[in-house]
Amino acid sequence: MIQPAYLTSGNTIGIVSTARKISREELEPAIGLLESWGLNVKLSHHLFEVDHQFAGTEEQRTASLQEFLDDENIHAILCARGGYGTVQIIDQLDFSKFKSHPKWVIGYSDVTTLHCHIHQNVDVETIHGIMPINFPKDGSENESTKTLKQALFGELDQYAFESQEFNQLGECEGELIGGNLSILYSLSGTNSTVNTVGKILFLEDLDEYLYHIDRMMMNLKKSGFLSGLKGIVVGGMSDMNDNAIPYGMSALEIIKKRTSTLNIPVAFNFPAGHCEPNKALYFGRKCTLKVGERESILTF
User: Fold this and answer.
1) Which residues does UniProt mark as catalytic (predicted)?
2) pLDDT tens, position by position, 186-210
3) For the whole model, what pTM was predicted?
4) Domain 158-299, what architecture?
């Protein structure tokens, strides 16, 4: 994998929305914090366009991201928010200049489409992390933004986090990939599906029915997506829904059941996803995962 250059004071970070609409007011806290890090902030031309729930039409969102991918004076691209819509534009993008002059692409949730497509087709590392819509409204720094800054400036080395009862103990090494479970499921069979062989998979999700979590996990298992993995890291499975007749298992219990036969280390309880903190991760970066009885350690 190609590693983009870490940021330094005076670099420019571009903000673009590939999915849902966002307002200038919602962005102001993030702009102020990024500038306090010594970064120049550039907003995409169509950032505040509105097309129903989207940040502009598919053509406008494509043009905005393409401009930032091609601009050698932009050193990182921060997606403003998720929602839905990145998959609508992914096949219209040209990554040739981006590969020649790589830069960090940052986001989570719906931005999983970008992470997977870039890893599978462009071989450039990306950052799974907090987006401007989630920055503290008072402009302060919290654990999520702190780890994003560390990742961007090359100061992120290791996480230690408390073990969870469903953990499968062990140690492994591989490139970290993944993101939002629903997006990974939706990309199955497409040119954006990431090759998982020899990799460590990160999973998180939000606001899904429990039976759907099982449906998605069964798809990944039956399709072979889980077969060649070296390990799994499970982040937030937040605000899950159940039917009138209970499903009978939590999201974590479902994932435990569907991964227990893989005979690989599985670490639950990593603080990332639709939760606070949402700690930054290098996707595409080789790392070591140690899952112990008392704590798990992820080292880049």
Assistant:
1) 109 (nucleophile), 204 (charge relay system), 274 (charge relay system)
2) 999 999 999 999 999 999 999 999 9
3) 0.98
4) 3-Layer(bba) Sandwich (3.50)
